[in-house]
Amino acid sequence: MSKPLAERLRPRTLDEYVGQDHLVGPNGIIRRMIEAGRPASMILWGPPGVGKTTLAQIIARSLRAPFYTLSAVNCGVKEVRDVIERARSGREQPLFDSVTPILFIDEIHRFSKSQQDSLLAAVETGTIVLIGATTENPSFEVIRPLLSRCQVYVLKSFGKDDLLRLLDRALTGDVELKERHITVGETQALLRYSGGDARKLLNILELVVNSFGPNAEACITDAAVEACLQQNPAAYDKGGEMHYDIISAYIKSLRGSDPDAALYWLARMIEGGEDPVFIARRLLIAAAEDVGLANPNALLLANAAFDAVTKIGWPEARIPLAEATVYVAASPKSNSAYMGINDAVRLVRQTGNLPVPLHLRNAPTQLMAELGYGEDYKYAHDYAGHFVRQQYLPEGQDGARFWHPQPNHQEQMLAARMSALWGERYASPESTMPSDAPGGQEVGK
Prior knowledge:
With about 450 residues, this protein is of the alpha/beta class. It is about 50% helix and about 5% strand.
């Protein structure tokens, strides 16, 4: 039985390898590493079908290094230790003295902490060169001690030119396809459906060619591709890198006041089957962090959407999510509360546990009262306007500013009140009122 096209075309040398020029091109770090004969342990991070496994095999073949492979899907600590022991035993033979064995672990992000721990000593002592492949962000999925012993190299999705090169190589270099006298009329659908995944491109090509029958000449057209595939499932991995990329684009579109872009990324998550509660949670955060005091109603609407989503789920949840998405994106923006708490946390970390002023402390016992707890505290409601000036910050920090009102209508009203109460402490050029002109343009911006 014939091997799949993707396997038949798997490159065996760097010169046959398509894509990832930043790593294997003339000045690429992995090419230089191979040429120097000194490979380092590494994590190859990238989406499916970009050549992670192939690259590991090429490295081992180029260096003539013993090559061991494990899949995190079906092995445990015992299998890892067995392979390391075999690698150690092999190094003791004269034939392998100068060549460090390579251990390739596919889907290393699926390894548990104990499985990853079992690799540390072998990597540290140079018993093996570890090459891990992952579609997930190593910062989240690989333990820090192992990550510190490996270089992380990012492999990119294939661009149009790379995919076309691969298509040409398949049609001109694969014996079985050459016998079919295949012609290419259109490539748009083929490229679109492959989504930057070389393996998927070759699988689709093979599927379309086979749909013409064993003896018929095949012509690759958009219609032929679409007829074979019927639909293009949304590329989305709820636990993977695509998940983080799309939610990042969604949040940045909200922050950037682009409701159309925000709705697009929301639709991508909906079609990908994302958890609606996750989206609602991020929308809540954006309403507080990026809209903030410029329009406090955004947080109320986002919270209402969150509540609605937990009650109704898909597909109806898309409606309150869309309503809140448009409102948050279209609202004026302010991150003054977000920046204020960050500055306060930064001061706390710098100054440590400063004592609470005595007059602000509670005095539930007689001893505490005798020690001055709560003494001279001024109860605000006993004074005109329910306000009286007194020190609320720790000693030495009086006058510290964390909240800096921004030039939008809502915050300038708050700033005016603070200036009236606290005088110079809140008097600043930031008190300039915003323009009421359409478009939300602000003075000084």
